[in-house]
């Protein structure tokens, strides 16, 4: 039992019992007037908002996780770690399935409205219906076969080295996984097929193939540019990636060194594609 002074002549007695954030919404606090010590203490109720307590606990949890993730990557340089948003506009970042489906449905809707004289333009209803049907079908097909781009986290220090230190293959990998693709089951499908050898001796089943979740551009402590591929693989272990580290190096080479490691969560694994090019070597070859 402890006490704190809140006003002259008034002492708040509080219990040392731990507050349960999930099941208890307030705690009973006893207020005792110091001017009448011999009388029975008068009970008052002080309400402690649950949302405020949860907000403070959540803030501490987020800070702790950020500190843990920073300390778990000692090879990453502690330079300018400002995230640069990937807001560059290209046609590859537009979903053609959404465009085709939206345009086709719009033509069909207006065409039917004009055909039944609900909307003006009866003479154009046949043309709108004629083009609306195939556009809707093509849009639905593209939407069904659509593979969405993965998030790309680019730090400012890595963006400065991208043009001078990124190999053509690293640039192609970044461009391919950050745009919409159609007909592929997953990103980097051809690379993963050769590295993990689906269905072959010493390989893995296709259903156990790792799935790319995001990529990062960062700079290591030695100043080398690096692209990190973060995979989710529930049926694989870290040893499955370590055994194929040399294959990652040879497939994404030349001038590439691949390193594999464990991700932040249980089923995440990281493959670092480190560029061996430097600004000095690029300037000397040119």
Would you write up a description of this structure?
There is one protein chain. With 286 residues, this protein is α+β, with helices and mostly antiparallel strands. The chain has three domains: 2-56, no CATH class; 96-146, no CATH class; 151-285, no CATH class. Helix content is 38%, strand content 20%. The protein contains nine helices and eleven strands. The strands form three sheets. It has a six-stranded mixed beta sheet with strand order 4-6-8-9-11-10. A three-stranded antiparallel beta sheet has the order 1-2-3, with no helix packed on it. The protein has a two-stranded antiparallel sheet with strand order 5-7. 17% of the residues are buried. Residues 1-7, 9-74 and 282-286 have low confidence and may be disordered. The chain crosses the membrane at residues 94-118.
Bin the helical content. 25-40%
Biggest beta-sheet profile: 6 strands, mixed
Instruction: Count the domains.
Output: 3
Radius of gyration: 30 Å
Question: What is the number of beta strands?
Answer: 11
N-end to C-end Cα span: 76 Å
Question: H/E series, N to C?
Answer: EEEHEHHEEHHEHEEHHEEH
Number of helices: 9
- Mean pLDDT equals 77
The unreliable regions are 1-7, 9-74, 282-286
**Major sheet strand order:** 4-6-8-9-11-10
Give the overall silhouette: elongated
The percent range for strand residues is 15-25%
